[in-house]
Write a structure and sequence with these properties.
It is a single chain. The chain has 524 residues and is of the alpha/beta class. It is built from 23 helices and 16 strands. The strands form four sheets. A five-stranded mixed beta sheet has the order 2-1-3-4-5, with helices on one face. A five-stranded mixed beta sheet has the order 13-12-16-14-15. Strands 8-7-6-9 form a four-stranded parallel beta sheet, sandwiched between helices. Helix 11 links the parallel strand 7 (220-225) and strand 8. Helix 9 (193-200) packs across helix 11 and helix 20 runs antiparallel to helix 21 (470-487). The longest helix has 18 residues, at 470-487. The radius of gyration is 24 Å and the shape is globular. The structure holds flavin mononucleotide and iron/sulfur cluster. Flavin mononucleotide is lined by residues 155-159, 161, 183, 185-187, 271-272, 274-276, 309-311, 314, 490-492.
C-alpha cells in the first residue's frame, strides 16, 4: 500500500459498534490525525453486520474498502502510522466485501446497510434508493399490491402472513382515512435486524412505507419504535426530515398529487406492545392490551380505521421488489418462503452477526459456516429460533432448512429470524421454566389460560424438576400447555408451549432428578 496524506474512514454509528466504543474511537482518530497533519474524513455508516469485528473501521481505497477490526482506541496511533507509511497493520482484514462471511450473503434488503451514510439522502439515491417509489408512482394501487403479492413476500415480524393479501384488504376497505403502521417494537430475544436497518438505512423503511401508503390509499404513517432504540430514533427522524424537505414525503409527493406523512412514536416498553392489536392500543395512548379479532386491523385498526401494520423488514423489502420486480424477488427462496431473510445469529457463538440469505439455508450452515461454532468452544447443544416463544432445536434438527413450512413440520417457527445459541452447559429445564416465567411476567392479563396458566406452569416445572411425582407433573404440564395453546387469545399465551414442550421432548434428561451434568457443566 502506498503512503497517504488524506484518508476517508467509515466508522459505524450502529448501536452494536457504539456499545463497544465506536464514539471514543472516532474522537481518537480525529485527535491522532490532527497530530500527524493527516487530512481525515470520517463517515458514520451503518454496521456491516460482522458484529464480532466491531468497531469495524473501513478505509476507502481505489479498489474499494479495506476492513480493520476490531479497532481499539489504543491501536489508533499505530493504525494511522501504518496508513502514512504504507506499512501493513495487524488488524487489517482485507477488502470488506471479500470477507467470506459477507461475500456469500444475498443482501437485498440490507444491500445499503454499512455501505452508505444512513442519513444522507444523496447517498441513498446514489445507491438505488427511491427507484422503487418512482415506479410505484407510475402504477395504481391495485398494480402495486399485485406486485407485492406476486413477490411472495410474507410478514417478517413472526406470523409470516402474505403481505400482499393484507394490503389488498386495506385497499378494498372504504374509508376517508387509512393508516400505515410500522411495527418496530422488535421485542424478540436475539433479534436486531429491525434496529440495524433503521440505524443503517432508514430511508429504505421510509420508502417502503410510502409505497404501502400509495398502494392502499393511506396518507398517514407511524413508526412504533421500541423505546430502547434511541439511535434508531435519531436516524429515522433525520431521514424523515430530509425526505420531507425533498418532497419524498408530505403533500403532493414529487408532484404526483399523492400525500404521505410519517411520524415516529416511542413504544410502551412491554413485550406485548409488539403484538399488533396491543401496539395499536398503545399508539392510541392506551395501555397495551390485546384486542379481540375480528375485526382485523386491516378493516378496523388505528383509531378504528383500515390499517396496514407490518414489520420493519417487511416494509424494507418492498423498495427492491418494486424496483427490480416481483419475479426478481420471487426467484430467491424455497417452497412458499420466497425472497431473503436477514438472520440474526447471537448467544454462545463465535461469529455473531447479521446474515441475509435466501430461505433454504440450513441451521447447521448458519451455525458453523457463518458462526464458526460456539464461542466457548464446547459443542452446540441447542438453539432457540424465533424469539422467546420459539422452539428449542436439538443438534439432530440442525439440517432443517430455514423455511416456514419446514419449521412448522418440526413444531418450530422461523419468526423474526433470531437464532440464540447454547452450548452443552445449558440447563434446558431452566430454559423451559424461563419461558413460562417470561409469559407470566409479560402477559397482558386479558385471558385466563395465559394469565393464570403461565404462573401455574412455573410451579409445575418446579415440582417436576424437584422430582415430586414426576410422571403426574409432566402429564399436568403437557395438559396445561395444550390449554394455553388452544385457549389463549394471542400468541404470547398460545405459543409458550413451543419452548416448553421442545425442551421437554428433546432434552428430557434435564428434567430428571438427580440429573447428570457433563464435565465442566454448571450444576442444576
Ligand atoms: C406477543 C407478541 C409480540 C410480538 N412482537 C412483535 C414485534 O416486536 N415486532 C413485530 O414486527 N411483530 C411482532 N409480533 C407480530 C405482530 O403481532 C404482527 O404479526 C406483525 O406486526 C405483522 O407484521 P408482518 O406481517 O409484517 O410480520 C408480535 C406478536 C406477538 C403475539
Ligand atoms: S394470551 Fe396473554 S398476552 Fe395474549 S391476550 Fe391472553 S393474557 Fe394477553
Amino acid at each position: 500500500m502506498s503512503a497517504v496524506r488524506s484518508v476517508k474512514l467509515y466508522v459505524p454509528r450502529d448501536a452494536a459498534a457504539m456499545a463497544v466504543g465506536a464514539e471514543a474511537l472516532v474522537r481518537a482518530l480525529e485527535r491522532e490525525a490532527k497530530g500527524r497533519a493527516l487530512e481525515l474524513t470520517v463517515v458514520r455508516n451503518g454496521s456491516r453486520g460482522l458484529l464480532w469485528l466491531e468497531p469495524l473501521v473501513e478505509l476507502e481505497g481505489p479498489a474499494g474498502r479495506i476492513a480493520y477490526g476490531p479497532m481499539t482506541v489504543g491501536a489508533v496511533p499505530g493504525f494511522l502510522d501504518s496508513l502514512l507509511s504504507g506499512a501493513a497493520h495487524p488488524l487489517c482484514l482485507g477488502p470488506t466485501e471479500q470477507l467470506a462471511y459477507f461475500k456469500s450473503q444475498e443482501r437485498l434488503t440490507f444491500a445499503r446497510v454499512g455501505l452508505t451514510d444512513p442519513v444522507s439522502l444523496t447517498d441513498y439515491r446514489a445507491h438505488g434508493g427511491y427507484r422503487g417509489l418512482a415506479r410505484a408512482l407510475s402504477m395504481d394501487g391495485a398494480q402495486i399490491v399485485a406486485e407485492v403479492t406476486d413477490s411472495g413476500l410474507r410478514g417478517r415480524g413472526g406470523a409470516a402472513f402474505p403481505t400482499g393479501i393484507k394490503w389488498k384488504t386495506v385497499l378494498g376497505a372504504q374509508s376517508a382515512q387509512k393508516y400505515i403502521v410500522c411495527n418496530a417494537d422488535e421485542g424478540d430475544s436475539g433479534t436486531f435486524s429491525d434496529r440495524m436497518l433503521m440505524e443503517g438505512d432508514p430511508y429504505c423503511l421510509i420508502e417502503g412505507m410510502t409505497i404501502a401508503g400509495l398502494a392502499v390509499g393511506a396518507t398517514r404513517g407511524y413508526i412504533y419504535l421500541r423505546w430502547e432504540y434511541p439511535l434508531a430514533k435519531v436516524a429515522l427522524e433525520q431521514a424523515i426530515a430530509a425526505a420531507t424537505a425533498a418532497n419524498y414525503l408530505g403533500r403532493n409527493i414529487l408532484g404526483s398529487g399523492k400525500d404521505f406523512e410519517l411520524e415516529v412514536r416511542l413504544g410502551g416498553g412491554a413485550y406485548i406492545c409488539g403484538e399488533e392489536t396491543s401496539l395499536l392500543e398503545s399508539l392510541e395512548g392506551k395501555r397495551g392490551q390485546v384486542r379481540f379479532k375480528p375485526p382485523l386491523p386491516a378493516l378496523s385498526g388505528l383509531f378504528g380505521q383500515p390499517t396496514v401494520i407490518n414489520n420493519v423488514i417487511s416494509f424494507a423489502s418492498v423498495p427492491i421488489i418494486l424496483d427490480q420486480g416481483a419475479a426478481f424477488y420471487q426467484h430467491y427462496g424455497m417452497g412458499r418462503s420466497r425472497g431473503t431473510l436477514p438472520i440474526q445469529l447471537t448467544g454462545n457463538i463465535k461469529h455473531g452477526g447479521l446474515i441475509e440469505r435466501a430461505f433454504g439455508i440450513t441451521v447447521r450452515e448458519l451455525l458453523y459456516d457463518y458462526g464458526g461454532g460456539s464461542l466457548s468452544g464446547r459443542p452446540i447443544r441447542a438453539v432457540q429460533i424465533g424469539g422467546p416463544l420459539g422452539a428449542y432445536l436439538p443438534a439432530s434438527q440442525f439440517d432443517t432448512p430455514l423455511d416456514y413450512e419446514a419449521f412448522a413440520a418440526i413444531k418450530a417457527m422461523v419468526g423474526h429470524g433470531g437464532i440464540v445459541v447454547f452450548d452443552d452447559t445449558v440447563d434446558m429445564a431452566a430454559q423451559a421454566r424461563y419461558a413460562m416465567q417470561f409469559c407470566a411476567i409479560e402477559s397482558c392479563g386479558k385471558c385466563t389460560p395465559c394469565r393464570l396458566g403461565s404462573t401455574r406452569g412455573v410451579e409445575v416445572i418446579d415440582r417436576l424438576v424437584a422430582g415430586e411425582r414426576p410422571a403426574a407433573q409432566e402429564a399436568l404440564l403437557r395438559d396445561l400447555c395444550e390449554t394455553m395453546t388452544v385457549g389463549s387469545l394471542c400468541a404470547l399465551g398460545g405459543m409458550t408451549a413451543f419452548p416448553v414442550l421442545s425442551a421437554l421432548d428433546h432434552f428430557a434428561e434435564d428434567f430428571l432428578t438427580p440429573r447428570a451434568a457433563p464435565a465442566g457443566r454448571a450444576g442444576h
